[in-house]
Amino acid sequence: MAKKEAPGRKRAFHASNVVVIGLGRFGTSLALELVKNGHQVFGIDTDDRIVQSLASSLTHVVTADTTDEEAVRELGLADMDSAVVAIGADIEASILTTSLLLQLGVKQVWAKANSKSHGRILEQIGAHHVVFPEYEMGRRVAHQVSGESLDYVPIDEDFVMLKGMVPESFDGKNLAELKIRSRFGVTVVAVNQGDGKYTPAFPETVLSKGQTFVVAGQVEPLNKFCQLD
Ligand code: ATP
User: Which of 79, 158, 206, 215 is 20 to 30 Å apart from 192, CA to CA?
Assistant: First the structure.
């Protein structure tokens, strides 16, 4: 088992210790984002080349097979605040790893699923959170491709936040007079003032055509709202 230590990382307020198992594209991107936000990230993968390549970027990285119960126990993962099982293709490895982490008592176990049935098994064995990155990203990109929105972030099955263009009919009016929430059942959350920065939306915020804004709401009213021009 190869062990690599990376230089200490600055801790942010509420920094947590997270173990990311499976450093493929999803696991690596997630691990690097956590480090960027000041968290302590312990990365594990069976592939020594991947482990070497992340040695200076993550807080700590180890080459190990997390389906091996003894190896997992030796790694002392029980004290981690959360664990992310980012193994997708090898469903058996994903399930065994998730189950070992749950047995160890890791407080929050997140697991990536590559299919609905994979996700269902992860839920049945007790994973606290199951994510479907391909499915979720597919939904998100579909809305960009169709031109309905510039970005689309599903919060849950029926609640979404999106980035869209201010319709021409809203030009020069403020949110209070437009009565967006009562007329359309959606909420304008933030508005881009043209300098690339978003600021929170207030009743007196005036909208201009061509400006972008962030709107939140349930899927159906939000879809109707996106068709305004
Ligand atoms: P991605 O789409 O994120 O690239 P993927 O869905 O193709 O990943 P896999 O290829 O199964 O998922 O796994 C991602 C990573 O998990 C790989 O780097 C692989 O080496 C690692 N991995 C697979 N099995 C294990 C295991 N038993 N223990 C530790 N790491 C593992």
Answer: 158
The distance between the two most distant Cα atoms of the chain, rounded to a whole number of Å, is 66
Closest CA to 86 of 55, 121, 129: 129
Other CB atoms within 10 Å distance of the CB of residue 79: 11
Which residue's CA is the nearest one to ligand 1's atom 15? 22
Structural domains in the chain, sorted by start: 4-131 (3.40.50.720), 136-225 (3.30.70.1450)
Phi, psi (rounded to 5 degrees) for 171? -55, 125
Query: Given ligand 1 and candidates 1, 68, 90, which is best to mutate, with the most ligand atoms within 8 Å of its CB?
Result: 90
- Regarding the beta carbon of 25 and ligand 1, being less than 6 Å apart is answered yes
Rounded CA separation 224/21 (Å):
41
pLDDT digits (tens, 9 = 90+) for 160-183: 999 988 999 999 999 999 999 999
Q: How confident is the model at residue 188 (pLDDT cuts 50, 70, 90)?
A: very high
Pocket test for ligand 1, best of 28, 30, 46 (most atoms within 8 A of CB): 46
Contact in structure between 21 and 49 (CB atoms under 8 Å): no
Residues 42 and 60: beta-carbon distance below 8 Å: yes
